[in-house]
Specification:
Length: 80
């Protein structure tokens, strides 16, 4: 899921690839609360993952966001 997130961050959000690391925090990347709202929509649209605004806002790093994505994918796979 990290690769998917990195692709979204560098493509849709136009972040420089060298800045997108697992340890990077949204504020360090220049991303604010509006980012959380937009990311939630983009994740649902591009990856089919429904992650709440609150969950995304609580994620402190890019790696934590990727973990949320993986957890949601696992939940979806388990319900099929």
């Amino acid at each position: 899921m990290y690769d998917t997130l990195a692709r979204i961050l560098t493509g849709r959000f136009q972040l420089r690839p060298e800045l997108v690391t697992p340890e990077a925090t949204p504020p360090a990347l220049g991303l604010d609360s509006l980012f959380v709202v937009e990311l939630s929509f983009v994740l649902e649209e591009e990856a089919g993952l429904k992650i709440s605004f609150d969950e995304l806002a609580e994620a402190g790093t890019v790696a934590e966001i990727a973990r949320l994505m993986q957890d949601e994918q696992n939940r979806q796979d388990a319900s099929v």
